[in-house]
């Protein structure tokens, strides 16, 4: 009963622990990926340059350097999706990695199902037309980004300009974690990046207007200490 | 016994310096005698006018050497002896001729004026010398104090410099952490220190001058060491001999010295504070890098274990293997162990040193939502009642930690109640606190055990079959208390347990609302 949805991606794993490399490799090869391995950041950068992978899975706790620097280096010349593995207690490494340009993260320990879900989401976003659809539908909600119209069960929903901008930023990157800073910068502007209470209040408004149960949101998910994620499913 | 008294120096000075004075006047007498005899010898060669000069010279010399009193004596004696010896009739007083009277008057007046002027000049010179000496002592002291690195050095330097420049015994009294003055550790001689008086001087920031009854000491001054930010101690000065005038000036000088010492002490205080902070930061950094390393080292094998077990489970499922159940058990146990490792690491992080909170304005509704989502699996068999006041204000807290509290409380409720039992969260505002309750309709808490539940490694049911190490509630308490809040556990009247915690609310941050007239998206001027 194995789900063998073919992914057929080239994946580079940058991880110093051999046991984890093995399990990630097995899990990914089972769904049809080709996997390359690197055990240091140095080698990782080299492999990323020569093999041109479709996805990089990067452990943040590598002994030979800072994973965040690796992401910045890589982002200077490549837009390849990066999935970060973190074993740190603090949230900062994750936030720093995401702010530096990582696409998503997984906290150790994680299971195969989680890993594959993230790999699928990240690669789907990457392979999709970056222009994105102008109409997004989730649950009973229908968003027309071009016409700037939102309906809920075919009833129009009134959103303020900021609410609409926040919604459009979120729905344009489904399944991706957006950090507080990224959202504040895109919706309110660079001056507002420290005023996260705006984000809290407007996320509350959006959930009130668009979620069936705002206290237990299904689409606008909180990543505590990090940011928010829009789940269309 | 505390009596403020200006020290009356003049009366005492004559008493103590009587022998010195006697000597000065004796010298005056001898000089007068000597000059008369010299003049008598030289009389054949000299004119009367020149002899008068000789007599005036004697007055000036005595005035310069011994001051006003002896000069006055010499002036008078000289006039008399001149009249007696040199004015005819010789060896008899003659004030009858106009000539003699004039000489007498002029000699007396000139002698007095010259003597007075010379004596004043001498006095001023002495004061100037003393001042210069003190100033140079002050410079030396300032220089030495600026190089001092420890309070002990300041004490030693000030004591030495004050003793050298004022001919007194000096000592510093420094306060401990609770602002109680300590007995000086470099106590000179038999200095009669009264700590109560010193403490009063320190607390009120007022100098205290004492005429003391004790034999060795003529006067005791307690001078507060006033630094810009606070008083840093008390300078104790003991005069073994009465202070030579001018007193007011020396008082000022001592006050200046006190300020110098106070500033040196303050500088050292802040240098110490800065150094301690550095050490603390270093320790903090080491601690968090140690924990991060430990976390990495513990979680990496757990990840491999869970991941490999899961991969294998999927493969065995395809093959319909009879070992599926065992492997599933391995997978579950590994997951449980990972949770325990998390708890232990959290506890270590919260217990060692001070908890560093990353506060931000948070919405409780959002934190509850995140906690419930995390626990989707464990809570699937429990009806969940969320009753949050829709007008809850934002609360300034560490989101990750407060979510952790909610997760732990919900997890406990799910763990210690049978499936099907309702679990709920209620939240509201009470005065200036945000009150949150996690309740259940389960069997409740064992009576009498409520307070110890929050201790480390305590579990509700003795030898319970429910797995866990009993760290969850201890972690909750650490987190809530670090936020300045409170947490308690109790049984509900309607049955079941209730865990309630309260966080202090702060005035909300400034918030610009959108112009509602602009609320149609179509009107938005976005590019």
- H/E element order of chain A: EHEHEHEHEHEEEEHEHHEE
Cα-to-Cα separation, first versus last residue of chain B:
86 Å
Note poorly predicted spans of chain B: 1-16, 516-527
| Helical stretch tally of chain B | 12
Structure report:
The complex is a heterodimer of chains A (233) and B (527). Chain A is an alpha/beta fold and 233 residues long. Chain A has eight helices and twelve strands. Chain A has helices spanning 18-30, 41-51, 67-75, 92-100, 112-127, 161-171, 180-187, 196-210, and strands spanning 10-14, 34-38, 55-59, 82-86, 104-107, 135-138, 141-144, 149-152, 155-156, 177-179, 220-223, 227-230. In chain A, the strands form three sheets. Chain A has a five-stranded parallel beta sheet with strand order 2-1-3-4-5, sandwiched between helices. Chain A has a four-stranded antiparallel beta sheet with strand order 6-7-8-9, with no helix packed on it. In chain A, strands 10-12-11 form a three-stranded antiparallel beta sheet. In chain A, helix 1 (18-30) links the parallel strand 1 and strand 2 (34-38). In chain A, helix 6 (161-171) packs across helix 8. Chain B has twelve helices and eleven strands. In chain B, strands 6-8-9-11-10 form a five-stranded mixed beta sheet. Chain B has a four-stranded antiparallel beta sheet with strand order 1-4-3-2, with helices on both faces. In chain B, strands 5-7 form a two-stranded antiparallel ribbon. In chain B, a hairpin with a 7-residue loop joins strand 2 and strand 3 (219-226). In chain B, helix 10 packs across helix 11 (399-416). The longest helix of chain B is centred in the middle third of the chain and has 73 residues, at 247-319. The radius of gyration of chain B is 46 Å and the shape is rod-shaped. Mean pLDDT of chain B is 81; it is low at 1-16 and 516-527. The chains are: A alpha/beta (233), B alpha+beta (527). At the A-B interface, helix 1, helix 5, helix 6, helix 8 and strand 11 of A face helix 8, helix 9, strand 5, helix 10 and helix 11 of B.
């Amino acid at each position: 009963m194995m789900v063998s949805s073919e992914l057929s991606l080239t994946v580079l794993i940058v991880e110093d622990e051999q046991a984890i490399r093995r399990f990630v490799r097995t899990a990914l090869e089972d769904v049809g990926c080709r996997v390359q391995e690197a055990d240091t950041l140095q080698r990782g950068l080299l492999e990323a340059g020569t093999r041109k992978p479709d996805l990089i899975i990067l452990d943040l706790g590598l002994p030979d350097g800072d994973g965040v620097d690796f992401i910045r280096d890589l982002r200077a010349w490549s837009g390849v999706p990066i999935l970060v593995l973190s074993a740190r207690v603090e949230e900062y490494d994750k936030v720093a990695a995401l702010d530096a340009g990582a696409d998503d993260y997984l906290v150790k320990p994680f299971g195969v199902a989680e890993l594959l879900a993230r790999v699928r989401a990240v690669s789907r976003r990457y392979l999709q037309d970056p222009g994105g659809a102008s109409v997004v539908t989730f649950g009973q909600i229908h968003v027309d980004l071009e016409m700037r119209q939102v309906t809920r069960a075919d009833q129009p929903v009134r959103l303020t300009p900021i609410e609409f901008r926040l919604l459009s930023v979120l729905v344009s990157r489904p399944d991706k974690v957006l950090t507080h800073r990224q959202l504040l910068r895109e919706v309110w502007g660079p001056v507002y990046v420290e005023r996260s209470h705006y984000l809290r209040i407007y996320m509350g408004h959006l959930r009130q207007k668009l979620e069936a149960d705002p206290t237990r949101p299904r689409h606008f998910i909180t990543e505590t200490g990090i940011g928010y994620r829009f789940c269309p499913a | 016994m505390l009596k403020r008294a200006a020290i009356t120096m003049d009366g005492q000075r004559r008493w103590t310096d009587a022998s010195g004075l006697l000597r000065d006047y004796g010298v005056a007498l001898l000089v007068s005698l000597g000059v008369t005899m010299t003049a008598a010898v030289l009389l054949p060669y000299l004119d009367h006018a020149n002899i008068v000069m000789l007599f005036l010279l004697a007055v000036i010399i005595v005035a310069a050497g011994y001051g006003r009193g002896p000069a006055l004596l010499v002036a008078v004696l000289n006039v008399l002896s001149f009249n007696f010896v040199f004015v005819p009739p010789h060896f008899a007083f003659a004030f009858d001729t106009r000539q003699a009277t004039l000489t007498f008057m002029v000699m007396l007046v000139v002698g007095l004026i010259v003597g007075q002027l010379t004596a004043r000049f001498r006095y001023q010179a002495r004061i100037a010398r003393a001042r210069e000496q003190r100033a140079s002592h002050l410079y030396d002291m300032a220089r030495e104090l600026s190089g001092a690195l420890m309070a002990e050095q300041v004490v030693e330097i000030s004591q030495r410099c004050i003793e050298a420049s004022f001919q007194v015994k000096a000592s510093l009294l420094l306060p401990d952490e609770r602002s109680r003055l300590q007995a000086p550790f470099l106590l000179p001689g038999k200095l009669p220190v009264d700590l109560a008086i010193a403490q009063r001087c320190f607390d009120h920031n007022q100098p205290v001058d004492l005429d003391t009854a004790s034999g060795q000491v003529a006067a005791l001054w307690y001078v507060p060491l006033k630094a810009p930010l606070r008083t840093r101690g008390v300078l104790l000065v003991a005069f073994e001999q009465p202070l030579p005038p001018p007193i007011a000036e020396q008082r000022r000088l001592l006050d200046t010295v006190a300020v110098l010492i106070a500033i040196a002490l303050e500088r050292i205080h802040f240098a110490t504070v800065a150094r301690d902070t550095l050490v603390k930061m270093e320790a903090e950094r080491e601690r968090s890098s140690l924990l991060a390393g430990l976390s990495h080292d513990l979680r990496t094998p757990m990840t491999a274990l869970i991941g490999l077990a899961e991969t294998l489970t999927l493969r065995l499922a395809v093959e319909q293997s009879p070992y599926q159940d065992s492997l599933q058990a391995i997978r579950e146990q590994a997951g449980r162990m990972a949770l325990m490792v998390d708890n232990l690491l959290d506890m270590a992080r919260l217990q060692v040193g001070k908890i560093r909170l990353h506060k931000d304005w948070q919405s409780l509704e959002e934190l509850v939502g995140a906690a419930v989502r995390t626990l989707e699996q464990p809570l699937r068999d429990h009806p969940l009642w969320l009753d949050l006041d829709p007008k809850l204000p934002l609360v300034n807290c560490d989101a990750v930690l407060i979510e952790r509290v909610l997760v732990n409380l919900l997890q406990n409720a799910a763990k210690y109640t049978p499936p099907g039992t309702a679990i709920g969260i209620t939240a509201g505002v009470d005065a200036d606190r945000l009150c949150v309750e996690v309740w259940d309709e389960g069997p409740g808490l064992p009576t009498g055990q409520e307070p110890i539940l929050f201790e480390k490694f305590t579990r509700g049911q003795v030898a319970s079959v429910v797995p866990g190490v009993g760290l969850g509630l201890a972690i909750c308490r650490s987190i809530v208390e670090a936020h300045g809040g409170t947490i308690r556990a109790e049984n509900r009247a309607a049955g079941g347990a209730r865990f309630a915690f309260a966080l202090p609310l702060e005035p909300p941050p400034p918030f610009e609302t959108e112009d509602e007239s602009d609320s149609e998206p179509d009107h938005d001027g976005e590019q």
